[in-house]
Amino acid sequence: MDADLRTFATGGGSGGEGIKIWDLRDLTKPTTNISWGQSASGDKINRCYNTVKFVPGMSLVLAGCTDDIPAKAFNFKTGCNVVQEFYQLKRSCFSIDVSKDATQVALGDYCGNIQVDNIIKAHV
């Protein structure tokens, strides 16, 4: 749930649903759809998402899945572009948490490894 207490994110499953941003005041359709990426032919790529989380006080949603790039940060207010990628995990990201001051993210993989990284604020 975002800081406004009305906006939340979901990560789709194996059906390629993508990341969806919702407003609790109208659950008939998501306000925003985010795709993991695009193929060379322009088709949307969506993974089975293991975790999604808002960055407090920012327009960022973090998502983790099983991919060569296991976690990404998306700006959901400016076109859902990728603003940061996290490579250091071992293929899968299963947990995400953010520091209270929104400067750092902790990511966990399937081997029990934890990566702590700074959140880039230049793109927000």
Proportion of beta-strand residues: over 45%
What is the CATH top level name? Mainly Beta
Along the chain, the helix and strand elements come as EEEEEEEEEEEE
Structural class: mainly beta
CATH topology: Methylamine Dehydrogenase, Chain H
Q: Mean of residue pLDDT?
A: 85
Specify the helix fraction band: under 10%
* Overall number of structural domains: 1
Radius of gyration: 14 Å
The total beta strand count reads: 12
What can be said about the biggest beta sheet?
4 strands, antiparallel
Walk me through this protein's architecture.
The chain is mainly beta. The chain has a single domain (7-118), classed as YVTN repeat-like/Quinoprotein amine dehydrogenase (Methylamine Dehydrogenase, Chain H, 7 Propeller). It contains no helices and twelve strands. It has strands spanning 7-11, 19-23, 32-34, 37-38, 44-45, 49-54, 60-65, 71-75, 81-86, 93-98, 104-109, 114-118. The strands form four sheets. It has a four-stranded antiparallel β-sheet with strand order 6-7-8-9, with no helix packed on it. Strands 1-2-3 form a three-stranded antiparallel β-sheet, with no helix packed on it. The chain has a three-stranded antiparallel β-sheet with strand order 10-11-12, with no helix packed on it. It is globular and about 40 Å long. The model has no long low-confidence stretch (mean pLDDT 85).
